[in-house]
Amino acid sequence: MLRSALLILSLVLANIVNAQTASPTAPSSPSQPLIILIGPPLSGKTTFADSISHTYGVPTISIEDLIRDNAAELDKLRGEGVSLAEMRYDPAMSRYLRERLKTADLSHGITLDGYPATLVQAEELAKVFPELKMKLVALRLQVPDDIVRERAKTTGRESDRPQIIEQRIKDYHREMDAISLYFPNAKIVDLDGSLPEAEVWKAIQTALDEAGLKSAAK
Question: CATH number, domain at 123?
Fold first, then answer.
């Protein structure tokens, strides 16, 4: 089942990439980036999304923001014993993202922090992507489970309590594990997220520079 889900997910993101070049009548290739940060919980996605925003002038839409801004509705949708943090996997996230994209300033591109988190969300993103007319830049932060657990002990957040973090780790592996093996047409840049933050950030900058992004100060 995992292999099947990942194969479908690979086709979804491959379609996103192919949509950028498939139309022979397109006047020019997309210039603004859609940066997707992929990684397990506590891999630093939000930290690096903020750094990308400050350095390259690319704003961020985070799944945490979507949860917070729609907490009242999500509170009604979630089942007994389900935390708000776990609602990141709910299909409603795609609806919230579409609404946010309608009002977001996309003139410098956009970074998605924590979205897509599931196959269903990736499929929804694939439907929206052609309208955005952006180029895809996918960065995957790889962090071993034990390091995720150690980081969770220091945050003090409800979403990082032992029982919840274990489920989040399992959910991540179920939906996104070994993803690069199934992307023959879509390049995912793998980054060692267990390294010191400064080293990871340097690797991210290298990847973004190679993708053609320029610092806002340049």
Answer: 3.40.50.300
